[in-house]
Amino acid sequence: MYQATARRSKGYAVWVYPDHHPVERDCLQCVHCQFTWFVEPGSGVERGWCQHCMGPTCGKPGCHECRPFLKQLEDAERRIEFFKAVGV
Fold first, then answer.
1. Which helix (H) or strand (E) holds 15?
2. How far apart are CA 37 and CA 21, in angstroms?
3. 24-82: per-residue pLDDT in tens?
4. Taking Cα atoms as reference points, which of 59, 36, 34 lies closest to residue 46?
5. What is the pLDDT of residues 6-34, one digit of tens each?
6. CA 32, CA 71: separation in Å to the nearest integer?
7. Alpha-carbon torsion (60, 61, 64, 68), positive or negative
8. How would you classify the pairing of strands 55-57 and 36-38?
9. Strand-pair partners of 14
10. What angle is formed at CA 62 by the lines to CA 6 and CA 10, rounded to 5 degrees?
């Protein structure tokens, strides 16, 4: 019944092949790096959950440490403003 679903999916994709029936899948997105993947229960791929952000993580080594994507963007903007201020 529920082969590829998520409670709060971040996206939904439908592929229509000329010789097959349509394939429908839910997508999730990592709260730390914005990596998007298709929900496939039982695939064997280890994903995670961030207790601080309350969202799914992709399981990549860089995403084990809680660093929300919005915080990363703010840090990048701050670096750009600093370099502009010092004339680099």
1. strand 11-15
2. 21
3. 888 888 989 989 888 877 788 888 888 988 888 998 988 888 888 888 899 999 999 99
4. 59
5. 566 667 788 888 888 888 888 888 989 98
6. 9
7. negative
8. unpaired
9. 24
10. 20
Tell me how many degrees the CA angle 28-5-54 measures, rounded to the nearest 5: 45
Residue with tokens 């439908």: 14
DSSP code for 31? T
Q: In the chain, which ranges are continuous DSSP H helix?
A: 69-86
- Evaluate if pTM is beyond 0.70: no
What are the tokens at 4?
């590829």
CA distance 45 to 47: 6
What torsion do the CA atoms of 64, 69, 74, 77 make, to the nearest 10 degrees?
A: 100
Query: What are all long-range contacts of 2-7, with beta carbons under 8 Å and residues at least 24 apart?
Result: 2/41, 3/41, 4/38, 4/39, 4/40, 4/41, 5/39, 6/39
Q: Which of 53, 59, 63, 62 is nearest to 37 (CA)?
A: 59
